[in-house]
Specification:
CATH architecture of the domain at 16-144: 3-Layer(aba) Sandwich
Strand content: 15-25%
CATH topology of the domain at 16-144: Rossmann fold
CATH superfamily of the domain at 16-144: Response regulator
CATH class of the domain at 16-144: Alpha Beta
Distance between the termini: 75 Å
Order of helices and strands: EHEHEEEHEHEHHH
Oligomer: single chain
Strand order of the largest sheet: 2-1-3-6-7
Number of helices: 7
Shape: globular
Radius of gyration: 19 Å
Length: 190
Amino acid sequence: MTPGRTPVEADPPQALRVLVVEDDPVAADAHALYVSRVPGFEVAGVAHTRAEAARALERTRVDLILLDLYLPDGHGLALLRALRGAGHSTDVFAVTSARDLAVVREGVALGVVQHVLKPFTFPTLRDRLEQYAEFRHSTGADRGGGEAGSQAEVDRALSALRTPQPATLPKGLAAATLETVTATLRDAGE
């Protein structure tokens, strides 16, 4: 290094900006709070309708949308379909009470990268956000792209989102209790 010169430090990684789209104000506030508590993420905005979400996406950079599927002015997947049709490739977590597997399949076809069932705990969303950050890093999205050197590298990138993680149980529910109830219900159905 030349005397009198200071070393050039790399810029810290930019926080991933998240738009929360949720019609229930209490849930929207909780989801925004959860996002803000995860290092490397920041809330870009909160929208309570499809129309508000579309306006927010026109005026601000967003890396990820937490999208409720049941909105007062239409289905969240209709918003996602319109965004894809307009060329938006923003990643999406479906954050919803929708348990219909046809809806899950349609969401995946439209580019939903995670489907988080409500209600959920902070650790559940934190884990999914951390997996997502790893996915973005491993695919070079945080560096403007790049190429995979091997199939193993591609598999590693995809596994950041798809590797099954032990589900975080709701507060007050022990794994042993869940197993007992599940076994009892299964036996009762036979």
